[in-house]
Amino acid sequence: MKKVEDYIRTIPDFPEPGIMFRDVTSILQDAEGFRLAIDEMKKLIENVDCDVIAGAESRGFIFGAPLAYALGKPFVLIRKKGKLPCETIEKTYDLEYGTATIEMHKDAVKPGQKVVIVDDLIATGGTIEAAAQLVEELGGEVVKIIFLMELAGLNGREKLAKYDVESVVTYEGK
User: Fold this and answer.
1) Catalytic residue among 16, 46, 87, 96
2) Of 8, 48, 107, 118, which residue is least crowded by CB atoms under 10 Å?
3) Which domains does the chain have, with CATH numbers?
4) Would residue 96 show up in a list of annotated catalytic residues for this protein?
């Protein structure tokens, strides 16, 4: 029986020499691989008491929405600045070179709601740290953060140390 990592294509030296790029599109292009990825992510939250699933743009939408559907939960979008039509809150965070800003609708999470945040990959952890801060600013409680893949060599878990974080597949390098 295949494992999720069997569906992940590794591309050496992309986007620069020395990087081993973990390509999620190879999972999405294979029906069985995609089903397995969703099923394995679902196992990470089956026993988690939550009210809402939130996903970070854009691959967090790909994996978070089917999880929300499977669990019968609402799905909340965490988007890049300027993409949401209603009143939003925002958080700016540091990137390797510069900054980025993400937003959520002000009414996306109600005070006291328990939220699981979903994304495809944890690298340095900055995006999801900002996403968790948005959830908390709205009065929500981040009860779990899950990823399909983790690049352990980039130490993203350190930024998310106060949260319950799990990944389906962990790669030791960068």
Assistant:
1) 96
2) 107
3) 47-169 (3.40.50.2020)
4) yes
